[in-house]
């Protein structure tokens, strides 16, 4: 059974639509920045998922697939392409030699650092707008 909900007001619809528009503009910015750096948006997301993984600086293929919400075999293909571009490397796990960890190379670190600085600046610019829009959703 669905819980009883208050109706959504016109101003909330407007805030939600504006928030979605702002998110889409940010995603377009991100896609274009990745392209300018010679990456696909998914390759950029993969580098960020690896570097930003909680508690360590490597991931397994399964963890990467989960973070990117893609199938395991798609993550394998993505990593293959990133290895060819010398952005990541496969490293045998010290704990279990059957497992392979995916780490950024120094080139991958440099590309991600540049892209992340651009994204941080863009978020600083649009952050106040997003905050205002989110507040409008709570009305």
Q: Mind explaining what this structure looks like?
A:
The chain has helices spanning 10-36, 41-51, 61-68, 72-84, 106-137, and strands at 58-59, 88-92, 100-104. A 3-stranded antiparallel beta sheet has the order 1-3-2. The protein is built from 5 helices and 3 strands. Helix 1 (10-36) packs antiparallel against helix 5, helix 2 (41-51) crosses helix 5 and helix 3 packs across helix 4. The chain is 65% helix and 9% strand. The two termini are 25 Å apart. With 139 residues, it is mainly alpha-helical. It has a single domain (10-137), classed as Winged helix-like DNA-binding domain superfamily/Winged helix DNA-binding domain (Arc Repressor Mutant, subunit A). InterPro entries: HTH_MarR-typ (IPR000835), MarR/SlyA-like (IPR039422), WH-like_DNA-bd_sf (IPR036388), WH_DNA-bd_sf (IPR036390). Residues 9-139 form the HTH marR-type domain. GO terms for molecular function: DNA binding; DNA-binding transcription factor activity. Keywords: DNA-binding. This is DNA-binding MarR family transcriptional regulator.
């Amino acid at each position: 059974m669905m819980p009883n909900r208050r109706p959504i007001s016109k101003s909330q619809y407007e805030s939600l639509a504006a928030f979605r528009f702002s998110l889409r503009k940010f995603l377009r910015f991100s896609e274009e920045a990745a392209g300018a750096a010679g990456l696909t948006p998914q390759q950029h997301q993969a580098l960020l998922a690896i570097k930003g993984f909680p508690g360590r600086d490597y991931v397994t293929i399964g963890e990467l697939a989960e973070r990117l919400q893609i199938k395991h075999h798609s993550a394998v293909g993505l990593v293959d392409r990133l290895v060819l571009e010398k952005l990541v490397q496969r490293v045998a796990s010290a704990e279990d030699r059957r497992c392979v960890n995916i780490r950024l190379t120094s080139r991958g670190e440099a590309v991600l650092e540049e892209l992340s600085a651009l994204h941080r600046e863009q978020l600083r610019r649009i952050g106040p707008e997003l905050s205002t829009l989110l507040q409008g959703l709570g009305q």
